[in-house]
Amino acid sequence: MQQLAGLDAQVDRVDVRPSRQRKTSARRKVTVRLSESVCGRLDVATDRPGVGKSMLVEAALEHFLNPVPSVEALLRERLDDMHARFDHLDRNMRMIAETVALHARYHLTVVPPLPESQQREALLLGDERFKVLAEQVDCRVREERPLIQETIARLNSSEHEELKRDTGVGPNLEPARKVANTASERVDLKRTPPAASVKAGRGNPSFAHHPKPTTDGIKPAKLEAAPDKALSTWRLILSVFLPFAAGYYLSFLFRTINASISPVLASDFGLGAAETGLLASVYFLVFAGAQIPIGLLLDRYGPRRVQSVLLVIAVGGATLFGNADSLAELLVGRAMIGLGVAASLMAGLKAIVLWFPRDRVAFVNGGMIMLGSLGAVTATAPTDWLLNQIGWRSLFEVLTIATLATAGLIYFAVPKADGSFNNSVSSGKLLTLRSIFSDPRFVRIAPLSATCIGSSWAMHSLWAASWLADVEGFDRQAVIDQLFAMAVGISLGALFLGTLADRLRKRGVGTEVLLAAFGALFMVAELALILRVPLPSIMPWSVVSVVGAATVLSYAIIADHFPIEIAARANSALNLLHFGWAFAVQYGVGLIVGHWAPQDGHYPVAAYQAAFGISLALQAAALAWFIVPWLRILARKLCVSFAAPVEEAAFVALTAEGPVLEPSQGVDW
Predict the structure, then answer these.
(1) Is residue 243 part of a domain?
(2) 161 and 132 in a common domain
(3) Torsions phi, psi of 188, nearest 5?
(4) Residue 220 binned pLDDT confidence (cut-offs 50, 70, 90)
(5) Residue 166: what pLDDT?
(6) For 381-395, what is the mean pLDDT?
(7) Do 400 and 523 fall within a single domain?
(8) How high is the mean pLDDT of the chain?
(9) Hey, which residues does 602 pair with through a beta bridge?
(10) Domain total for the chain?
(11) Residue of 649 and 293 predicted with greater confidence
């Protein structure tokens, strides 16, 4: 049946679309044949105002020609996605199986059988190692960082860099490679999207909608630096290394300058030992309290902006300190200086990680710490000469100008970020203070590192000069000369400790052993000072100054124990304890010494012996806590050496027949 006449008759009556739209779209007449039932349904549907047959037919054709995906199609697409994920999971499982098989074959082929006399000791040692392995597995599972994928990504990156160096091609691929490497560090163990290479390798055309790896959640700090990795070495040194090294130099100078200016301040303001200790230690108190917030700010806004803004605060503090007329103004100025330079070390370390090649980070870190510690050298003889020439107030005017110039240098010379810091905190997994301070490895390391390094800073920056003047009887020039030698010692000590740790590690000696050894050496030096051992004073005090550079060891240990994503915050937490302990020691020594009345302007030897003795006792307790795991292993070895032969025989049967890592009769795991 022809419906053309009826359809055309109602077009003008029911089509309510604007006339402008009808003019812009061409229309054609089409003759169609419909069944009686469809015509009846069409009449019922159009029996409403504003609804025409042409409109309804056109809408039906539009829906038919451009259909919405059906439920079946969506289900098929989802099943294809699940198929791809199962393929990826199957690949990972086969990789794990091959890894275990290769390791087992190598172990069974290469490792010789142990004699019966050594098997029980090996079992105990294996127990300790297995506990460490379990901790590492638990840490990587919680942090979602598969080691094998991380290693493969690193190898691919190395091959790409070697190809780039050999051929000189592929510079545009570097940012993508950096993105891929960074993404591999955040692989989800529970739900890993299939890679494009897997899909291509399968060649299955049905996998049309595989989820592609994205850069969502990648840490912006690494993305920021990737495009600029091609900067020349000299440009990196001039625009990144030297500006941040200058900031750390000022931090070290402000930290240790009180040893040179404290006699002048005590004379001008009538300060006693307690007030002098408080004035020097408030720097450490504010410095320590700012470490955790500064770590978050560095992750969010980058080292360039954070360091330059904080140095402006240090400019205000130096100005207030140089124009102070009371102890309260001195304290506020000193606190502002401590806040202003609180990010100097961490900002420099973060900038080095961002801009320098990974294989050069350790060396550049040592260089920055060495150059920064030259601030302690400047705080001795050069500062004393300037005090004699221009006075301490003019000296702080010079420091104000230098700090402002350094802030401007960092802000304008360091390459700008690309703005990707804004989401860095929300994109990654936040690390709480509780999770760091409750970690058993951190709990073991932190007390020894904080008590030794913090005490070294407190003694070197203030009480070394007082000891040399009051106890050793040195005149002003002799004190300055010895402080200068100690400052050179801490500068060279950073480079020495880093090199020594690297060489000993290649020989199988852990950095923890070196930290414990230098902690014990530091305590021996303090004991020699307390007992007044007849040695040249430069010997024990040189040890005290060198231990102040042992942060090189502490940060290396933290980097070994914690994942790279949270190592910076763990270092900030450790730095918080360093400076917090330095404040406690510096102020506490002043309180203890102040209980003795000065004689001819000098405090007695007993006052310093009591103060240093309390600090030494706490350090000894921290060292004992640090070596407790080693003592446990030693005790077990001694127990093994006196064990009954019957137990050894039973153990031999166990190792030959039963699983080694399972609890069994007669063996205490």
Answers:
(1) yes
(2) no
(3) -85, 120
(4) very low
(5) 52
(6) 88
(7) yes
(8) 75
(9) 599
(10) 4
(11) 293
